[in-house]
From TrEMBL:
Gene3D superfamilies: 1.10.530.10
CDD domains assigned: LT_IagB-like
Protein name: Transglycosylase SLT domain-containing protein
InterPro entries documented for this protein: Lysozyme-like_dom_sf (IPR023346), Transglycosylase_SLT_dom_1 (IPR008258)
Organism domain of life: Bacteria
Amino acid sequence: MPALIANTFVACVLQAAHVNGLPPDVLAAVIIAERGDIGAASRNRNGSEDLGVMQINTSAWLQHVARAHAGGDASRAYTRLRDDSCYNVAVGGWILARAIESAHGDVWQGVGFYHSRTPRFAESYRQRVRRIHRRIASRRSAATTAQR
């Protein structure tokens, strides 16, 4: 990925974290765990799709996003969630913040809720994101130490 694009995406992640009161490393870990990509539309067994870098579920969120940001136009909201990585991260950050809020501020429970309200799926996802988060924190610590 060219540096300019990477730097722009990092700026989008930092902005979404700031606006939604999220720890940037947690948001980044969720993005990595989702394994989405620009233009991604992953079909689920129930017929819904998960869109873009944060794999935002159409069944759960498309109509809400369409009403809030696309004048009710679900097709326009779908395309933007799928193809605009910065917008996808902004919406995904908002969803993650709402999940944490519904978990009474418990970040890790909220991370699980971002993925599923089914306890076993939420727990498995939470553990995966925590492992990724630890790797991010470890790399940041190593980079900070190397700069000294």
